[in-house]
Here is the input.
Amino acid sequence: QVQLVESGGGLVQAGGSLRLSCAASGRAFFALGWFRQAPGKEREFVAAISSSGWSTYYADSVKGRSTISRDNAKNTMYLQMNSLKPEDTAVYYCAVRRGWVTGTWSPQHIDYWGQGTQVTVSS
Here is the structure.
């Protein structure tokens, strides 16, 4: 069993930055990722990182503006988001997937979810 707790969300102006954190309890040596869900929209993939941290993958919508990282000693994953846009407004979810896959992850393949943290970007 893995439990995930996100933090770091909040209200920020367009062009600003936020760093989201995801603390994992239990076995954390799985691939980890971030998804987001805006009101009235489906949950969408944002970024993922392999268990070692050597491999990463980003959705086109955040590529170049975001950096995913992890500290396995702390069982924590991070998402640094810069140059935020109003369209980045969503609830951001931490996710665990047992096997690493390079490419966009589907929500159907996620083994564990966090409870989510709200990110609101004002224009």
Observations:
- The chain has no helices and eleven strands.
- The mean pLDDT is 94.
- The CA atoms of residues 17 and 82 lie 4 Å apart.
